[in-house]
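Database export, one record per block. Field names are fixed; values are copied verbatim from the stored entry.
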Amino acid sequence: MSFKSLGSAAAALLLAGFSLFPAPAQVPASGPAVVIGRDNVLKLSPTAALSLPGSLTTALALSADGSSLVFGDMGGRVGSWDRASGKLSELVPPQKDFKLDEDGKPPFLGTLFLAPAADLIVTADAAGKVAVRGRTGSPRYSLPFGATALSAALSLDGRLLALGGKGKRLLVVNLKSGEVVADLACDIEYISVLAFSPDGTSLLAGFERPLNAMRTWNVSDWTVRATFCHVEDRFDYHDILFAQDGKTLVIAGTRNVIEFFDLSERRIVQSLWGHASAPYQIAFSPDGALLASAGDDMTLRLWDARTGAALSSLRCSGEAHSLAFSPDGAAIAAGIWGAGIQVWTIAE
C-alpha cells in the first residue's frame, strides 16, 4: 500500500481540531431522496462539505438516509458529522503517538474499518493493538495483533472480523466476543486488503511482499482454497471487492486501472481506464448498478457496473482516497486527502 509524502506542515495539521464550512447549496437531508442511478449521475452536485485541514481520511460510512456520516483517519481519529445541523462530534480522539516517518509516510492505519450498521469501529495503534468499539466510540474489547495492522473486513452476517497487516499474521475473530477463531499464518506477507465473499463462504487476502498474490480460504474449516496472482507486475493493492455474483474480483491499485478478474478462469476480463493516476477505494452502489472509484487524480468516478461504461467524473478539491454510498443510494461522499469530506446528491 502506498501513501503520499505529506511534509512537516501537513503532519502538524493532522492533529488539529475540526472546523466546519458550509458548501454552496448545502441542504438538509430531509425530503424525498433521489437514488443515484445510471440515468441521473450527470445530475450529481456537491451539497455539503466538511473541512478537516491536514486530515488523512481512510474510512467513511453514511447513515441510512445519508443525513450523517462517520469518518476515520490515519491518526486514529474518528468523528461523526450531521449534515443538516452541522453538528460535529469526536468519537475517538487522535492518537498522541501518531507521526509520519522520515520519508513523510504514516507508520500505520489508525482507523481500519467503519460499519455503523453493525455498531462497529475498528482502530489500531503503533504497538500493534487492535481496538473494537461501538458506533459511539465506546470500547468493546481489544486484542494484541502483534504486527502493524493495515486491513480489516467484516463478514456479511456480521459474525466474523478479519485482520491483516505488514507481517504474515492473519487473524479472524468472533466479532461479539473478540475470541480468535482462526490464526491463518501465511508464507507470504503484507496483507493490504481483505474481503469476504458475498455468500460468506470465502475469505480473500491480497499480499504485496515479496510479490503480489491473493489467497482464499474456506470459512467453514479455514483450509486454503487457492493461491494465485492476477498479473505478474509488482504494484500496490489499494482495494479489492467481490462483485455481487461472487465469481469476479474488482481490483484497484497503482496500476492506475480498475480491473475485473474472473476467479474461475484466473484472468482479467475487463479493464476500466479513466483515472490519470491511482484509484484508491472503490464501492458498489447499494443496488449494485454503479461502481464508484476515488482517485489520486482528484476525481470521484462512477461506472456502469454491468457494462463498465464511464458515466460521470466528479471533480474533488484534492486527492480522493476514500468513498461511501449512503445505504439508500441517494448520496455519495469522498474523503479528500488533507482537506476534508465532500458529499454529492442528485440535483432536481
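Remark 1: Residues 73 and 218 are 32 Å apart (CA to CA).
Remark 2: The domain at 7-346 is CATH 2.130.10.10 (Methylamine Dehydrogenase; Chain H).
End of record.
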